[in-house]
UniProtKB/TrEMBL annotation:
Cofactor or coenzyme needed: FAD
Organism: Halalkalibacter oceani
Pfam family, one: Acyl-CoA_dh_1
Keyword Oxidoreductase: yes
Residues of the Acyl-CoA dehydrogenase/oxidase C-terminal domain: 231-379
Key word Oxidoreductase present: yes
Family classification: Belongs to the acyl-CoA dehydrogenase family.
Domain named Acyl-CoA dehydrogenase/oxidase N-terminal: residues: 6-117
Protein name (database record): Acyl-CoA dehydrogenase family protein
Length: 383
Protein backbone atom coordinates (compact mmCIF):
# COMPACT_ATOMS: atom_id res chain seq x y z
CA UNK A 1 0.00 0.00 0.00
CA UNK A 2 1.50 3.31 -1.11
CA UNK A 3 1.45 6.06 1.49
CA UNK A 4 1.53 9.53 0.04
CA UNK A 5 0.43 12.40 2.23
CA UNK A 6 -1.78 15.01 0.64
CA UNK A 7 -0.82 18.67 0.60
CA UNK A 8 -3.46 19.25 3.29
CA UNK A 9 -1.98 16.54 5.53
CA UNK A 10 1.48 18.03 5.12
CA UNK A 11 0.06 21.44 6.09
CA UNK A 12 -1.60 19.88 9.13
CA UNK A 13 1.74 18.44 10.24
CA UNK A 14 3.41 21.83 9.85
CA UNK A 15 0.62 23.62 11.71
CA UNK A 16 0.57 21.20 14.65
CA UNK A 17 4.37 21.13 14.92
CA UNK A 18 4.46 24.92 15.10
CA UNK A 19 1.65 24.89 17.66
CA UNK A 20 3.45 22.30 19.80
CA UNK A 21 6.76 24.15 19.68
CA UNK A 22 5.19 27.51 20.46
CA UNK A 23 2.56 26.56 23.04
CA UNK A 24 3.62 23.27 24.64
CA UNK A 25 7.43 23.18 24.66
CA UNK A 26 7.88 26.32 26.82
CA UNK A 27 5.64 24.96 29.60
CA UNK A 28 6.24 21.21 29.31
CA UNK A 29 8.57 21.00 32.30
CA UNK A 30 6.21 23.07 34.44
CA UNK A 31 3.29 20.81 33.51
CA UNK A 32 5.38 17.74 34.36
CA UNK A 33 6.50 19.02 37.75
CA UNK A 34 3.08 20.37 38.73
CA UNK A 35 1.16 17.43 37.28
CA UNK A 36 -1.40 19.94 36.05
CA UNK A 37 -3.82 19.51 33.18
CA UNK A 38 -2.92 21.86 30.29
CA UNK A 39 -6.16 23.86 30.24
CA UNK A 40 -4.90 26.71 28.06
CA UNK A 41 -3.30 24.35 25.56
CA UNK A 42 -6.44 22.22 25.43
CA UNK A 43 -8.59 25.27 24.72
CA UNK A 44 -6.25 26.58 22.02
CA UNK A 45 -6.03 23.11 20.45
CA UNK A 46 -9.81 22.94 20.43
CA UNK A 47 -9.99 26.31 18.69
CA UNK A 48 -7.62 24.96 16.02
CA UNK A 49 -9.91 21.96 15.52
CA UNK A 50 -7.46 19.38 16.87
CA UNK A 51 -9.84 17.74 19.37
CA UNK A 52 -12.63 17.21 16.89
CA UNK A 53 -10.63 16.70 13.73
CA UNK A 54 -11.93 13.27 12.57
CA UNK A 55 -15.56 13.84 13.59
CA UNK A 56 -18.53 15.16 11.57
CA UNK A 57 -18.96 18.89 11.23
CA UNK A 58 -22.61 18.73 12.29
CA UNK A 59 -21.58 17.73 15.83
CA UNK A 60 -18.70 20.18 16.19
CA UNK A 61 -15.95 18.25 14.44
CA UNK A 62 -13.81 19.18 11.46
CA UNK A 63 -14.93 16.35 9.19
CA UNK A 64 -11.33 15.19 8.72
CA UNK A 65 -9.72 11.77 8.37
CA UNK A 66 -8.03 9.48 10.87
CA UNK A 67 -4.67 9.54 9.12
CA UNK A 68 -4.54 13.28 9.71
CA UNK A 69 -5.52 12.79 13.37
CA UNK A 70 -2.71 10.23 13.65
CA UNK A 71 -0.30 12.89 12.39
CA UNK A 72 -1.73 15.40 14.86
CA UNK A 73 -1.03 13.11 17.83
CA UNK A 74 2.41 12.23 16.48
CA UNK A 75 3.38 15.90 16.37
CA UNK A 76 1.93 16.71 19.79
CA UNK A 77 3.69 13.74 21.40
CA UNK A 78 6.94 14.68 19.73
CA UNK A 79 6.98 17.59 22.19
CA UNK A 80 4.89 16.26 25.10
CA UNK A 81 3.10 12.94 25.28
CA UNK A 82 0.88 13.87 28.22
CA UNK A 83 -0.68 16.73 26.30
CA UNK A 84 -1.22 14.44 23.33
CA UNK A 85 -2.98 11.96 25.59
CA UNK A 86 -5.61 14.51 26.56
CA UNK A 87 -6.64 14.61 22.90
CA UNK A 88 -6.35 10.84 22.50
CA UNK A 89 -8.45 9.97 25.59
CA UNK A 90 -11.03 12.56 24.59
CA UNK A 91 -11.32 10.86 21.20
CA UNK A 92 -12.14 7.50 22.83
CA UNK A 93 -15.19 9.00 24.52
CA UNK A 94 -16.11 11.00 21.43
CA UNK A 95 -15.93 7.92 19.18
CA UNK A 96 -18.22 5.86 21.39
CA UNK A 97 -20.80 8.65 21.54
CA UNK A 98 -20.51 9.42 17.84
CA UNK A 99 -20.66 5.78 16.71
CA UNK A 100 -23.36 4.48 19.03
CA UNK A 101 -25.17 7.43 20.58
CA UNK A 102 -28.61 8.64 19.62
CA UNK A 103 -29.02 11.96 17.82
CA UNK A 104 -29.96 13.54 21.14
CA UNK A 105 -26.85 12.25 22.90
CA UNK A 106 -24.61 13.40 20.05
CA UNK A 107 -26.11 16.87 20.01
CA UNK A 108 -25.90 17.18 23.80
CA UNK A 109 -22.43 15.83 24.53
CA UNK A 110 -20.23 15.94 21.43
CA UNK A 111 -19.93 19.66 20.60
CA UNK A 112 -18.34 20.70 23.94
CA UNK A 113 -15.66 17.98 23.84
CA UNK A 114 -14.88 18.48 20.15
CA UNK A 115 -14.37 22.23 20.38
CA UNK A 116 -12.23 22.44 23.52
CA UNK A 117 -14.91 23.66 25.91
CA UNK A 118 -14.88 20.38 27.82
CA UNK A 119 -12.83 17.18 27.76
CA UNK A 120 -14.32 13.69 27.62
CA UNK A 121 -13.26 10.50 29.39
CA UNK A 122 -13.94 6.79 29.16
CA UNK A 123 -14.37 4.59 32.24
CA UNK A 124 -13.54 0.95 31.51
CA UNK A 125 -10.67 -0.24 33.71
CA UNK A 126 -11.31 -1.37 37.28
CA UNK A 127 -9.03 -2.63 40.07
CA UNK A 128 -9.69 -6.23 38.97
CA UNK A 129 -10.44 -5.64 35.30
CA UNK A 130 -7.69 -4.28 33.09
CA UNK A 131 -6.84 -6.39 30.07
CA UNK A 132 -9.74 -8.69 31.06
CA UNK A 133 -12.40 -6.06 30.40
CA UNK A 134 -15.19 -8.64 30.58
CA UNK A 135 -14.49 -8.98 34.31
CA UNK A 136 -15.78 -5.53 35.28
CA UNK A 137 -17.91 -5.31 38.43
CA UNK A 138 -19.65 -1.94 38.02
CA UNK A 139 -23.38 -2.56 37.57
CA UNK A 140 -26.32 -0.78 36.00
CA UNK A 141 -29.94 -1.76 36.63
CA UNK A 142 -33.01 -0.26 35.03
CA UNK A 143 -35.57 1.24 37.39
CA UNK A 144 -38.46 2.75 35.50
CA UNK A 145 -37.06 5.41 33.17
CA UNK A 146 -33.65 5.55 34.85
CA UNK A 147 -30.49 3.49 35.02
CA UNK A 148 -28.98 3.15 38.50
CA UNK A 149 -25.21 2.69 38.44
CA UNK A 150 -22.96 1.43 41.25
CA UNK A 151 -19.27 0.63 41.22
CA UNK A 152 -15.86 2.16 40.59
CA UNK A 153 -13.23 2.72 37.92
CA UNK A 154 -9.48 3.31 38.02
CA UNK A 155 -6.72 4.64 35.72
CA UNK A 156 -9.16 7.02 34.00
CA UNK A 157 -7.54 9.73 31.85
CA UNK A 158 -9.05 13.23 31.75
CA UNK A 159 -10.94 12.63 35.00
CA UNK A 160 -11.57 15.19 37.74
CA UNK A 161 -10.62 18.25 35.70
CA UNK A 162 -12.34 21.60 35.94
CA UNK A 163 -13.57 21.00 32.40
CA UNK A 164 -14.27 17.27 32.51
CA UNK A 165 -17.46 16.66 30.57
CA UNK A 166 -19.25 13.41 29.82
CA UNK A 167 -17.74 10.11 30.92
CA UNK A 168 -18.59 6.96 28.97
CA UNK A 169 -18.83 4.14 31.50
CA UNK A 170 -19.05 0.40 30.96
CA UNK A 171 -21.28 -1.51 33.38
CA UNK A 172 -22.76 -4.99 33.78
CA UNK A 173 -26.47 -5.03 32.92
CA UNK A 174 -27.11 -8.75 33.30
CA UNK A 175 -25.86 -12.21 32.38
CA UNK A 176 -25.65 -13.96 29.05
CA UNK A 177 -27.00 -17.51 28.64
CA UNK A 178 -23.45 -18.85 29.05
CA UNK A 179 -23.06 -17.05 32.38
CA UNK A 180 -20.74 -14.30 31.17
CA UNK A 181 -21.38 -10.67 31.97
CA UNK A 182 -23.59 -8.66 29.67
CA UNK A 183 -21.88 -5.28 29.41
CA UNK A 184 -23.38 -1.99 28.24
CA UNK A 185 -22.02 1.53 27.82
CA UNK A 186 -23.57 4.66 29.30
CA UNK A 187 -23.01 8.38 29.06
CA UNK A 188 -22.76 9.87 32.55
CA UNK A 189 -22.72 13.67 32.85
CA UNK A 190 -20.09 15.15 35.11
CA UNK A 191 -21.56 16.38 38.40
CA UNK A 192 -24.58 14.07 38.56
CA UNK A 193 -25.53 13.03 42.12
CA UNK A 194 -23.60 10.02 43.42
CA UNK A 195 -20.76 10.38 40.89
CA UNK A 196 -17.54 11.30 42.69
CA UNK A 197 -13.82 11.28 42.03
CA UNK A 198 -11.22 9.48 44.10
CA UNK A 199 -7.55 10.19 44.44
CA UNK A 200 -5.43 11.60 41.67
CA UNK A 201 -2.94 8.91 40.67
CA UNK A 202 0.79 9.63 40.41
CA UNK A 203 2.44 8.08 37.36
CA UNK A 204 5.97 7.61 36.07
CA UNK A 205 4.92 9.35 32.86
CA UNK A 206 2.04 11.35 31.39
CA UNK A 207 2.24 13.50 34.51
CA UNK A 208 0.34 16.40 32.95
CA UNK A 209 -2.46 14.04 31.98
CA UNK A 210 -4.86 13.76 34.91
CA UNK A 211 -5.54 10.14 35.82
CA UNK A 212 -7.82 9.13 38.65
CA UNK A 213 -10.52 7.01 40.20
CA UNK A 214 -14.28 7.22 39.63
CA UNK A 215 -16.96 6.14 42.09
CA UNK A 216 -20.66 5.59 41.44
CA UNK A 217 -23.07 5.34 44.36
CA UNK A 218 -26.68 5.03 43.23
CA UNK A 219 -26.01 7.24 40.24
CA UNK A 220 -29.22 7.80 38.30
CA UNK A 221 -29.19 8.72 34.63
CA UNK A 222 -32.00 8.81 32.04
CA UNK A 223 -32.87 5.61 30.24
CA UNK A 224 -31.84 7.12 26.91
CA UNK A 225 -28.21 7.56 28.10
CA UNK A 226 -27.52 3.96 27.09
CA UNK A 227 -25.21 3.83 24.07
CA UNK A 228 -26.61 1.61 21.33
CA UNK A 229 -28.07 -1.75 22.28
CA UNK A 230 -28.01 -3.15 25.78
CA UNK A 231 -25.35 -5.84 26.11
CA UNK A 232 -23.24 -4.59 23.18
CA UNK A 233 -20.91 -2.45 25.26
CA UNK A 234 -17.84 -4.69 25.19
CA UNK A 235 -18.02 -5.02 21.43
CA UNK A 236 -18.39 -1.25 21.11
CA UNK A 237 -15.43 -0.59 23.37
CA UNK A 238 -13.17 -3.14 21.69
CA UNK A 239 -13.86 -1.60 18.29
CA UNK A 240 -12.94 1.79 19.70
CA UNK A 241 -9.80 0.40 21.32
CA UNK A 242 -8.60 -0.85 17.93
CA UNK A 243 -8.61 2.76 16.78
CA UNK A 244 -7.04 3.79 20.07
CA UNK A 245 -4.12 1.48 19.37
CA UNK A 246 -3.32 3.43 16.23
CA UNK A 247 -3.45 6.65 18.22
CA UNK A 248 -1.29 5.30 21.06
CA UNK A 249 1.14 4.12 18.40
CA UNK A 250 1.14 7.61 16.90
CA UNK A 251 2.12 9.03 20.28
CA UNK A 252 4.91 6.46 20.49
CA UNK A 253 6.09 7.53 17.05
CA UNK A 254 6.18 11.09 18.33
CA UNK A 255 8.48 9.98 21.14
CA UNK A 256 10.78 8.20 18.69
CA UNK A 257 10.99 11.25 16.46
CA UNK A 258 11.44 13.57 19.41
CA UNK A 259 14.24 11.35 20.70
CA UNK A 260 15.98 11.55 17.32
CA UNK A 261 15.64 15.33 17.08
CA UNK A 262 16.87 16.00 20.63
CA UNK A 263 19.71 13.51 20.37
CA UNK A 264 20.95 14.94 17.08
CA UNK A 265 20.86 18.49 18.41
CA UNK A 266 22.77 17.48 21.55
CA UNK A 267 25.32 15.48 19.55
CA UNK A 268 25.98 18.44 17.28
CA UNK A 269 26.50 20.79 20.23
CA UNK A 270 28.35 18.54 22.66
CA UNK A 271 32.07 17.90 22.27
CA UNK A 272 34.24 15.30 23.99
CA UNK A 273 37.98 14.91 23.53
CA UNK A 274 37.88 17.75 21.02
CA UNK A 275 35.27 16.23 18.73
CA UNK A 276 31.48 16.63 18.43
CA UNK A 277 29.51 13.54 19.39
CA UNK A 278 28.35 13.22 15.79
CA UNK A 279 31.88 12.09 14.88
CA UNK A 280 31.60 8.89 16.95
CA UNK A 281 30.49 5.93 14.88
CA UNK A 282 28.79 4.10 17.74
CA UNK A 283 26.57 7.12 18.35
CA UNK A 284 25.91 7.47 14.63
CA UNK A 285 24.67 3.88 14.66
CA UNK A 286 22.30 4.67 17.54
CA UNK A 287 20.78 7.47 15.49
CA UNK A 288 20.53 5.16 12.50
CA UNK A 289 18.59 2.59 14.51
CA UNK A 290 16.17 5.20 15.85
CA UNK A 291 15.61 6.65 12.37
CA UNK A 292 14.98 3.20 10.91
CA UNK A 293 12.47 2.36 13.63
CA UNK A 294 10.71 5.70 13.18
CA UNK A 295 10.36 5.07 9.46
CA UNK A 296 9.00 1.55 9.97
CA UNK A 297 6.58 2.64 12.70
CA UNK A 298 5.34 5.52 10.55
CA UNK A 299 4.61 3.19 7.64
CA UNK A 300 2.74 0.72 9.87
CA UNK A 301 0.70 3.38 11.65
CA UNK A 302 -0.21 5.31 8.53
CA UNK A 303 -1.28 2.12 6.79
CA UNK A 304 -3.52 1.14 9.70
CA UNK A 305 -5.06 4.63 9.75
CA UNK A 306 -5.64 4.52 6.00
CA UNK A 307 -7.38 1.16 6.32
CA UNK A 308 -9.70 2.67 8.92
CA UNK A 309 -10.40 5.66 6.69
CA UNK A 310 -11.24 3.26 3.84
CA UNK A 311 -13.62 1.24 6.01
CA UNK A 312 -11.48 -1.90 5.77
CA UNK A 313 -10.52 -4.28 8.62
CA UNK A 314 -7.53 -2.98 10.57
CA UNK A 315 -7.51 -4.80 13.91
CA UNK A 316 -4.38 -6.82 13.19
CA UNK A 317 -2.57 -3.87 11.64
CA UNK A 318 -3.40 -1.62 14.59
CA UNK A 319 -2.08 -4.17 17.09
CA UNK A 320 1.10 -4.67 15.06
CA UNK A 321 1.64 -0.93 14.78
CA UNK A 322 0.95 -0.33 18.46
CA UNK A 323 3.27 -3.16 19.53
CA UNK A 324 6.14 -2.11 17.31
CA UNK A 325 5.88 1.64 17.84
CA UNK A 326 5.58 1.52 21.63
CA UNK A 327 8.43 -0.93 22.14
CA UNK A 328 10.66 1.06 19.78
CA UNK A 329 9.68 4.27 21.59
CA UNK A 330 10.94 2.73 24.81
CA UNK A 331 14.21 1.83 23.08
CA UNK A 332 14.57 5.29 21.57
CA UNK A 333 13.85 7.06 24.85
CA UNK A 334 16.42 4.87 26.59
CA UNK A 335 19.02 5.53 23.90
CA UNK A 336 18.37 9.28 24.00
CA UNK A 337 19.09 9.32 27.72
CA UNK A 338 22.32 7.38 27.15
CA UNK A 339 23.38 9.88 24.50
CA UNK A 340 22.70 12.79 26.86
CA UNK A 341 24.71 11.26 29.70
CA UNK A 342 24.17 12.91 33.08
CA UNK A 343 21.88 15.52 31.59
CA UNK A 344 19.58 12.76 30.38
CA UNK A 345 18.45 11.79 33.86
CA UNK A 346 17.45 15.34 34.82
CA UNK A 347 13.72 16.03 34.56
CA UNK A 348 14.38 19.48 33.11
CA UNK A 349 15.49 17.70 29.94
CA UNK A 350 12.69 16.41 27.67
CA UNK A 351 14.48 13.10 27.06
CA UNK A 352 14.08 12.11 30.70
CA UNK A 353 10.36 12.93 30.68
CA UNK A 354 9.90 11.02 27.43
CA UNK A 355 11.35 7.89 29.06
CA UNK A 356 8.50 7.68 31.57
CA UNK A 357 5.96 8.54 28.90
CA UNK A 358 7.22 5.74 26.66
CA UNK A 359 6.77 3.14 29.38
CA UNK A 360 3.13 4.15 29.85
CA UNK A 361 2.51 3.61 26.13
CA UNK A 362 3.54 -0.05 26.39
CA UNK A 363 0.77 -0.59 28.96
CA UNK A 364 -2.31 1.40 27.90
CA UNK A 365 -4.81 0.23 25.24
CA UNK A 366 -3.57 -3.31 25.78
CA UNK A 367 -0.10 -4.35 26.92
CA UNK A 368 2.52 -5.69 24.52
CA UNK A 369 1.53 -9.18 25.61
CA UNK A 370 -2.10 -8.53 24.67
CA UNK A 371 -1.02 -7.23 21.26
CA UNK A 372 1.02 -10.36 20.64
CA UNK A 373 -1.99 -12.47 21.63
CA UNK A 374 -4.22 -10.62 19.14
CA UNK A 375 -1.66 -10.79 16.35
CA UNK A 376 -0.99 -14.50 16.88
CA UNK A 377 -4.71 -15.26 16.71
CA UNK A 378 -4.91 -13.54 13.33
CA UNK A 379 -1.84 -15.41 12.09
CA UNK A 380 -3.15 -18.79 13.25
CA UNK A 381 -6.55 -18.07 11.69
CA UNK A 382 -4.80 -17.27 8.43
CA UNK A 383 -6.12 -13.71 8.26
Amino acid sequence: MAIQLTEEQQMIRKMVREFAEAEIAPVAEKLWEGQTFPYDIWKKGGELGLAGFPYPEEVGGAGGDWLSFTIILEELARVDCAVANAFMANSSAASLINNYGSKKLKESYLPPILTGEQVGAIGLSEPNAGSDAANIQTTARLEGDEWVINGSKIFISNSDNDITGPVVVAAVTGKKPDGRNQISNFVIPNGVAGFTYGRKLNKIGWRASSTGELFFDQVRIPKDHLLGEEGKGLKQTLSTISTGRILIGAMALGIIQGSIDRSLQYMQERKTFGKPLTDYQSLQFALADMATNAHAARLMLYQAAMLKDEGKPFDQESSMAKLFATEKAMEAAHQAIQLHGGYGIMSEYPVSRAFGDAKVLEIVEGTSEIQRLIISRHVIAGK
